[in-house]
Amino acid sequence: MTAYRLRACKGLTLIELLVAMAISSILIAAIYRTFMGQHKTYTVQEQVVDMQQNVRVAINRMMREIRMAGFGNVSDVLESGGVNGFTDVITPNDNTITIVGGFRQISTLAADAAVGQNKITLANATDASEFDGATHHHYISIGGLESNTVQSRTGADLTLDPNHPLKVTHPAGTPIFKIHAIMYGLRDDGGVRVLFRDLYPNTVSSQRDTVAENIENVQFEYFDADGNPTAIPANIRMVKVTVTARTGMSDPEFKGGAGGFRRRTIASNILVRNMGVNP
């Protein structure tokens, strides 16, 4: 009885143990390889999504502001010396673009402003404080109908350029827009190419905000009303923007792009609605 129990309870032999370990190792290696493959696929997809989002952010923001270039009938301030030195609604360049317009409403009129006046009153003094500081911070559009330069501020009252009194009567509640020049282009930020947005004027001389990272190339093309290429600012009616972005990390196993980077290119045609329009 004792011998039978010993035979029934015997353990694994060394060969059986080695075979079991070998099979387990093969299974673990296969599972690990599958896990790493799925992890890499997920990582790549995440980078591609980030890259595509970068391109969309870059294109969408530029589209909104380029489409508004010239809003506010900015011809008056452009002819009076320009906005921070920019004297055209659009200053064209292959790799940068500068646009001028009343992009941001900051207040409304607190009282009627009649033709011939050179003073207006905003809703409150806080809104009027937008025009504190150096003279080149003082570009304004009233109701989107005419533009002017603010000479001084007293509380909520703004004194405009005396050589350019109001040409239109504006009722109380008329929106007031601050006129800016905005430049888009590429710059190097610690070895990473980024799309920047430079705002003139700002509380400082300029402000190069990063709009999107890992942007390899931005190309601007300009067309007139007939769809012909043009370099003449006054003739521009459409801007074609082409943006190329790449993933943030290189994949040594990816052979479809230089340096192992995946890339996406998006192009958009933007009609400039306010060019050639004078109320």
Measured between the Cα atoms of the first and last residue, the distance is 113 Å
Enumerate how many helices there are, as a single number. 4
Number of domains: 1
Mean pLDDT: 85
Globally, the shape reads elongated
Q: Spans of 5+ residues with little confidence (pLDDT < 50)?
A: none
What order do the SSEs take from the amino end to the carboxyl end, as H and E? HHHEEEHEEEEEEEEE
Number of strands: 12
The share of residues in extended strands comes to: 25-35%
Give your account of this protein's structure:
The protein has 279 residues and is of the alpha+beta class. It has one domain. The chain contains four helices and twelve strands. The strands form two sheets. Strands 1, 2, 3, 4, 5, 6, 7, 8 and 9 form a nine-stranded antiparallel sheet that branches. The chain is elongated. It starts with a helix and ends in an 8-residue tail after the last strand.
List the helices and strands and how they pair.
Blueprint: H1 2-8, H2 14-67, H3 75-79, E1 90-92, E2 97-108, E3 119-121, H4 125-128, E4 139-142, E5 146-154, E6 157-160, E7 175-189, E8 192-200, E9 208-213, E10 215-223, E11 238-246, E12 263-271
Antiparallel strand pairs: 1-2, 2-7, 3-6, 4-5, 4-7, 5-6, 7-8, 8-9, 10-11, 11-12
List keywords for this structure.
279 residues, alpha+beta, 3-stranded antiparallel sheet, 4 helices, 12 strands, 33% strand, elongated
Short description:
Helices cover 25% and strands 33% of the residues.
